[in-house]
Amino acid sequence: MTYRTPIVINWWLNIGANVTKLNDGEVTKVQWRLERVLSEHRISAYRLARESGLTPQAIHKIVHNQVRGLDFDTLERILEALERLAGKRLEVGDVLEVVRDG
Questions:
Q1: Is 9 a residue whose pLDDT tops 50?
Q2: Is 99 helix (H, G, I), strand (E, B) or coil?
Q3: Residues 82 and 37: beta-carbon distance below 8 Å
Q4: Which of 5, 9, 11, 77 could form a disulfide with 52 if both were Cys (CB 3.0 to 4.6 A apart)?
Q5: What's the mean pLDDT in 29-33?
Q6: What is the predicted pLDDT for the residue at 18?
Q7: Residue ranges of domains in the chain, CATH in brackets
């Protein structure tokens, strides 16, 4: 299954870095919610790594918001693996959130 994301940027998504600075000085960041999703569905990071084909080290860094960027292929692999493991379709907004700092 292929996921279509509403994010309109090139093939690289900045995670945890300043993405946008709004007129009033507010900074918008994108960060992972993967730790919550794994906990809610009782899925281990190791199991997600095996199912997605990513290394356990890569999943660990993603879960703990230690990555500065991510390509959409990796995001798609994570979403497809979560769908198989959780038994339901998860969207980009389920694993990523936009945080605004004022």
A1: no
A2: strand
A3: yes
A4: 77
A5: 84
A6: 43
A7: 12-101 (1.10.260.40)
Q: What are phi and psi of 27, to 5 degrees?
A: -105, 135
Angstrom CA distances, 55 to 3, 11, 21, 46, 62, stand at 21, 21, 33, 8, 11
Query: How far is it, in rounded angstroms, from Cα 22 to Cα 6?
Result: 20
CB 82 within 8 Å of CB 72: no
How does DSSP assign 1-64, residue by residue?
--------S-SEEE-SSEEEE-TTS-EEEEEE-HHHHHHHTT--HHHHHHHHT--HHHHHHHHT
- What value, to the nearest 5°, has the Cα angle with vertex 1 and ends 92 and 78? 45
Per DSSP, what are the bridge partners of residue 42? Answer: none
pTM: 0.73
